[in-house]
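Appendix B, Record 12. Input sequence as logged:
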Amino acid sequence: MRGEGVRCWDSEGREYLDCVSGTFNLILGHNHPEVMAAVREQTEELVFASSSFQTGPTNDVMRQLVALAPPGLTRVNLRSSGGSTANEGAIKIAQHHTGRRDVIVPFRGQVGQTMATASLAGHSRMRAPFPLWLPGAVHVPDPYCYRCFYREEPTTCGMLCVERIDDFITHASSGSVACLLIEPISGVGGNIVPPPGYFAELRRFCDERGIVLIFDEAQTGFGRTGTMFAAEQFGVSPHMMTLSKGMTGSGLPLAAILTEERMAGWDRSLHGFTYGGHTLSAAAAVKTLEIIQRPGFLENVRASGAVLLDRLTALRDDHPVIGEARGLGLMLGVELVEPDGGKAVARTHALHRALHSRGLLTRVSEHGQGNVIELRPPLILSPDEAHLIADRFGAALESLEAAA
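Logged structural output:
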């Protein structure tokens, strides 16, 4: 098998358009030549250094992250190597800072895969196989307007999905809430895009109650939504932000926790991992951040994303199985529904297989249990390639209807 750019080939030489960027992490596509060159160059100087020492690449990454981050996020913890442990570290920092315990997580929230983060995840199936899991999660309805928990409409709901969090704190928490951790756009949970004003109201809610607001931008960060971070799309700065996946542009592991200055100063030994801040990964991240900031890069993400979303939305006219196509930039999802509006899980899996047979690599939401086709192609996707994806998507839908 091999990959190059937005394409990859299987062991038999068949070509695919990678619409999920590896595992949403190859934001510059497979084997980006400049990133690979930066990694090779770093191998000639220093492959690994203990986190007890500073290196040029890690320092460069931290400086760039602070320069690019939403206002107020001035401190960087680079001692994690993946999103799960970055989220876990952010929670620990919030608990240490506030002296409180509980963590608010939206329904369908994907916090991570460690025992601690799986205990907090917004779906019970992540905990069901295990006899022991950690307490402290307070799960609240997410801003899923297409299937509103309160059966309201966005224009008239009064933002109940924020207002009613107080009820969950009063009746379902320990009374000691440290933080609220949320993906600006849910990834695994179905590509849910909150309505306008949601995050401004959520920030106000947290500020009034002394709750630390954490944005998990593992999937949304580094240009995925058409801006450097999704926080920019919603005009709200969190108190803390976690980053991973696309940071290195290459598949090398690296993660970061960004915090406000007031949360600095804890004992660094409370959260650190052997391969956190890995020197090679940091070298890849330095080059990746440089590439993303080049003129026209984010404009291309927005342009290609607009083409793809428009084309997918237009497919609804001829294919009522599509309930909604939604997303920002190149973070898109297509929700499939039954004639009565229910979740078309079986049809989603059939479409997933049909897309694969037509050379499109996609994923199904909720770790393969949901009814949303996830599309996260590399950010170097061109508008012409976006049209090609939409053409194949339409052909896959037609093949399923013809077989029905």
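The first helix runs from residue 21 to 24.
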